[in-house]
Amino acid sequence: MAAADTEFGAWPLKRLMTEVVGTGTKSAEDMTREQAMEAMRRILADEPDHTTLGAFWLANRWKHNNAEELAAFTDVVAEHVQYAEPQVDPVDCGANYDGKGKTAILGVAAGITAAAAGTPVVVHSGDRVPTQKQDAYKHVLDELGVRTELEPDESADMVDDTGFGFYYQPKFNPAIHDLWERRDNMGVRTFVNTIETIANPANASTHLGSFYHLAFAKKMVDTFKASEHHDLRRVVMFQGMEGYDDIRPGYTKVAEWTDGEFDDFEIETAEYGMDFEYDDLGVDEDDVAGDSAEITEAVLSGEREDRFADAVALNAALRIYAREDADSIDEGLEMAREAIESGAAADVLEDLRAF
């Protein structure tokens, strides 16, 4: 038995590698909650040398972290997050921070539309994070002339003043932001890419997130349940486009968990009279944020009534439904379209620019 470290405990990352997570894809074991928490505390304190840290991240990628480990990592990160709760209780949208590289980022337009319909929405991201370094929420808002490098209290005020709020990771989650260079040197995604999306800086009671397959959605629900920090009552996860929180054209699987009950259903865009494919939502890959911003402004102003307007309205409807401000996607869709047609969505964008 290794001697206990007076600052952290008995489980430095090298020992976890040799005795628990790094023994091979078939023989590797899961960490206990205590081991995972100690590992995360060491990482945030910059205690492991970079070679050991990289090996630890890679071993966990091969092993696949379970919900208990992810919850432990999340709870340690929560000790460092600067939470700022608005007076309203928004939907927390923690899209993939890696961003998008091929299709329009619809979440800004969808969130603003939902806000105009009466559903407060919070989004959060950082700058271009490892490993893809593609465009995310921040970059679309920057292109639209909305301030993004806000202190957490300002972000909360933005939600209360406009219905839509952006939280900037370097401000509300500086401990994770400080890992940027080491994550970049890895060259591949790590569990940090997962836990940063569920930081929930506004302490919302509803989380809307994306997944690649249903088993991962269930794992994320179990992560929230195992977390001693988070106390959400509703989690809605769906199989988003490019791993982002935008509904896929055609078929999208949705998983929802409310007060301990888990269910899943499908969204078929054709059922809502929407006839478009994945490629129809493509943008200039050299200017994803710029094109997405132009599309956002055109849709919110009512100048576009095409496939992008349909996609924005449907994504807004899911946000409205997630917060249970509508009993169905159909009802949410009516509310979203009315928010655009009435000019309310365009007004929210102007309020954001003036904030």
Brief summary of the model shown:
The protein has helices at 13-21, 33-44, 50-63, 67-78, 107-116, 137-143, 152-162, 169-172, 174-177, 180-186, 191-195, 214-226, 288-300, 307-322, 329-341, 344-354; strands spanning 91-93, 121-125, 164-168, 206-210, 234-238, 251-258, 261-268. The chain is an alpha/beta fold and 355 residues long.
Provide key terms for this protein:
single chain, alpha/beta, 7 strands, 11% strand
Protein model, in words:
With 355 residues, the protein is an alpha/beta fold. Helix content is 45%, strand content 11%. It has a 7-stranded mixed β-sheet, with helices on both faces. Strand 4 (206-210), helix 12 (214-226) and strand 5 form a beta-alpha-beta unit. It is globular and about 60 Å long. The mean pLDDT is 94.
The low-confidence parts are: none
Approximate shape? globular
Strand content: 5-15%
Helix percent band: 40-55%
Topology of this structure?
Elements: H1 13-21, H2 33-44, H3 50-63, H4 67-78, E1 91-93, H5 107-116, E2 121-125, H6 137-143, H7 152-162, E3 164-168, H8 169-172, H9 174-177, H10 180-186, H11 191-195, E4 206-210, H12 214-226, E5 234-238, E6 251-258, E7 261-268, H13 288-300, H14 307-322, H15 329-341, H16 344-354
Parallel strand pairs: 1-2, 1-4, 2-3, 4-5
Antiparallel strand pairs: 5-6, 6-7
